[in-house]
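REQUEST FORM: STRUCTURE PREDICTION
Request ID: SP-0412
Submitted by: Lab K.M.
Chain count: 1
Length (residues): 85
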Amino acid sequence: MVLDGLAEEWTYRFLAAARTWTASKDVAVQQVQSAGIGTGESGAEPSSAEVWAWARGTGLPVPDRGRLRPDVWSAWRAAHGATGE
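STATUS: Completed
RESULT:
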């Protein structure tokens, strides 16, 4: 079936493009911030991606995957004068 082959090829190309786009978390965070998503202007806590980028920028050790540790969130709150969850 020719259509099955085309659908499979399109899927692989799409996934490869998505993987390339997300290969650099800094680029992904910049894209999200430039779109105005998760800016935190409402007084709510920032997204994990924003805190992750901030922690990396300040030299705090953060994992490449998974949840941010509570001490990273505490450090962000202390640095930004925010209160707890």
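NOTES: The chain has one domain: 25-85.
Reviewed by: T.R.
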